Amino acid sequence: MASEPMDMAGVVQEGRTVRMGLIGLGSMGRHHARVIREVEGMELVAVADPVGDRHGVAGGLEVLPDVAALIGAGLDAAMVAVPTYLHEEVALALCEAGVHTMVEKPIAATVAEGRRVAEAFEGAGLVGAVGYVERCNPALLELRRRIAEGELGEVFQITTSRQGPFPGRIADVGVVKDLATHDIDLTAWLAGSPYERVSGQVTHRSGREHEDMVVATGRLANGVIVAHTVNWLSPLKVRQTVVTGELGAFVANTLTGDLTFIANGDVRSQWETDRQFRGVSEGDSVRYAIARREPLRAEQENFRDALWGRPSDVVSMAEGVHTLEVVEAILASAATGQTVTI
After folding, report:
1. Dihedral through CA 25, CA 27, CA 28, CA 33, nearest 10?
2. Is 44 buried (19+), middle (13-18) or exposed (0-12) by CB count in 10 A?
3. How far apart are CA 265 and CA 155, in angstroms?
4. Average pLDDT over residues 305-334
5. How many CA within 13 A on the CB side of residue 147?
6. Which of residues 77 and 12 earns the better pLDDT score?
7. Where are the domains of the chain?
8. N or C end of the chain, less CB within 10 A?
9. What is the reported pLDDT for 132?
10. What are the angstrom distances between the C-alpha of 313 and each of 3, 4, 24, 32, 142?
11. SS3 128
12. What is the pLDDT, as a whole number, of residue 279?
């Protein structure tokens, strides 16, 4: 999906400190609390979680019981890090109160809920964003820049692998909405194209209600073919994105922030009947040195810039809805055995 930097009139006067609220102090919320405090131009003024501050991140702030109390603290903007099934309820309450909001991925539990959230923020003229932190990974940012500059030529294929042990923090969704949503979002972003159709296979091996493994394939609207292997039942943690094109392949390791380019080699077949085959061989390989910044910090800086009216690479709520449409299509495909057109 084409993604241009958001550029809108400043909703908070540029340079004025943004009064931030945070709801949800769990495994992601605790990191957002730290990062918001570190970002220049942001001040964490209120936090809320109905089950308390189990990670001890509130500092001197009172732990408020709900979103209504959070709004009452007088906010410019808020970060929503509650469980997915609560995203719609909390986001709509913030929207009604005129609070600019970033919601942790996915935007909501269902496409219908996500659309209601996105339409509400658009209709209110508020900044609404979704927290897809992988877009701020230094390896993927560099990869996207090099693709845009034509270093790969035409892009043919994007594959991702996101595997590792089960995270105890997840209780309300399966691996498709929790992990695969990252790969769907970053793939459309890298290719600059939405998904056209997908096919998926899932398994339930851990005894939980939701799926814990998925393999999905598909095609984007611009013709790029894609494949995603995602699970949380592997002892080996893998976070890899491979983009193959006419001039070679880029390999991004988002665990380490490394990016490698393998160029196509020169193939001259000595076999007469094989000379018409347009194949490639492995050519030179280059591993790029990339400045490593914490992706979550870059994500909050993007949100601040959007609030100040600066060009910003925040993930729009409309993009968040499209990603959720693809997620639901993969699950529908797995249930029916049919390829699903988006």
Report:
1. 50
2. buried
3. 17
4. 97
5. 26
6. 77
7. 18-134+297-315, 137-290+324-341
8. C
9. 98
10. 8, 7, 24, 18, 14
11. strand
12. 66
Distances, alpha carbon 106 to alpha carbons 54, 147, 246, 318, 339, in Å:
23, 26, 33, 12, 23
Tell me: the pLDDT tens digits for 288-304? 989 888 999 999 999 99
Q: Which of 135, 142, 180 is nearest to 295 (CA)?
A: 135
DSSP 3-state helix, strand, coil percentages of the chain (rounded to 5)?
A: 30, 30, 40
The packing angle between helices 111-124 and 317-336, to 10°, is: 170
**Domain covering 18-134+297-315, topology:** Rossmann fold (3.40.50)
Q: Read off the DSSP letter of residue 135.
A: G
Q: Residue 237 CB: number of other CB atoms within 10 A?
A: 11
18-134+297-315 shares its CATH topology with 137-290+324-341: no
Q: What is the mean pLDDT of the chain?
A: 92
The fraction of the chain above a pLDDT of 70, given in percent, is: 92
What's the average model confidence in pLDDT over 322-326? 98
Q: How many Å apart are CA 241 and CA 226, to the nearest integer?
A: 11
Distance from the Cα of residue 280 to its chain's centroid: 33
Could you tell me how far CA 64 lies from the centroid of its own chain? 28
CA dihedral of 47, 185, 118, 200, whole degrees rounded to 10: -110
Residue with tokens 């799926």: 211
Question: Which CATH code fits 137-290+324-341?
Answer: 3.30.360.10
Contact between 219 and 225 (Cβ < 8 Å) = yes
Chain mean position to CA 129: 11
Please write the tens of the pLDDT for every residue from 89-141: 999 999 999 999 999 999 999 999 999 999 999 999 999 999 999 999 999 99
Residue 150 and residue 144: Cα distance in Å, rounded?
A: 10
- Per-residue pLDDT at 114: 98
Distant-in-sequence, close-in-space partners of 86: CB < 8 Å, separation ≥ 6: none
Q: What percent of the chain has pLDDT over 90?
A: 84
